[in-house]
Design goal:
Strand content: 15-25%
Distance between the termini: 52 Å
Strand order of the largest sheet: 2-9-8-7-6-3-4-5
Helix content: 25-40%
Structural class: alpha/beta
Order of helices and strands: HEHHEHEHEEHEHEEEHHHHEEEHEEEH
Number of strands: 15
Length: about 400
Amino acid sequence: MKPILKSGKLANVAYDIRGPVLDKARLMEEEGHKIIKLNIGNVAAFGLEPPDEIVQDMIRNLPSAVAAGYTDSKGLFAPRKAVVHYTQQKNVAGVSVDDVYLGNGASELIAMSMNALLNDGDEVLIPSPDYPLHTAVVGLSGGTPVHYICDEQSDWMPDIADIRAKVTPRTKGIVVINPNNPTGALYPDSLLLEIVQIAREHQLIVFADEIYDKTLYDGHQHTSIASLADDVLFVTFNGLSKNYRACGYRAGWMVVSGDKRHAGDYIEGLNMLASLRLCSNTPGQLAIQTALGGYQSINDLVAPGGRLRRQRDLAHQLLTDIPGVSCVKPKGALYMFPRLDPKVYPITDDQQFAYDLLAEEKVLIVQGTGFNWIHPDHFRLVFLPNSDDLTEAIGRIARFLHGYRKRLAL
């Protein structure tokens, strides 16, 4: 029979966080091996649970949610109003309930924002390294992802000159991931203002992924880029998955703000796509108001002595103690993006490196090129496991790298 082929639109799409190395890990688990998984920020898998008040509100509201059927295509009024209040706390002006879209996690809305905008060949500027969903959905929407460099020597700040050099007449928008996944970088207002100026000059939409805006360390504060101008169009994404440890609730939101005067047709496209999926899941919507208005327990986790803070510090210390490994200490998020000195570890295929680490030490990480980084000299790991498991996992990585150095010396 004639083979059934996947769409050609998938030819350049990858999501290595759940890619072939994970497939190999699953096979090993089926064979009875225990794998330490440092590949994905699935907080529930590491015992980090949502606040109890969110869980109880979900339970209480579930009967009415099931009976209610579809909601408005953008979502229920009360949680959307709660998001409006949150934007006000973040100093984002001029947001109404009609500017808020609820989704099955921020991921669905990121895809929707690009599907509504891009024609074949349109370009979107995306950071390198990136969270690979952004690159994937631009390609699936018919667009061309163009990666701008973030500079490790400057604590992974976006290279403004590189951004400017890569703007073309086909450029429609720029993605800003802040706090950043995978590097943990947090951008200062001065840099955000420079990005806004580029968007202003070239009439670009700023797509702001701010899902980790409360997961901050060392007293750092997050500025929403949409709060810095009212003459640029901003599309901002956030949700409950990380700050509220509620990945499985699939509750996210998208806010359109700034200069909407010339964006009526684009917003009509967003509304159409929101209607086509009917609505996001109602139980997840019902968690948003409670989460945003309740006690912000994430502050305890990131404070000195808090679990996430302790694990970040431990992971950074253990990694940088390994010869030939350096790592910019994250200011936010849940990840580290350590560098393997090419003089010590002359790796040419970092996916094979991840395979070998998995096979020898039963530790699962994601290779740096999976985040559209240009060199095979980085990898990403999550520091979500408790301290004992984290010490064991990085100890195995250290042992593997020691063996690598010994083999190279022979």
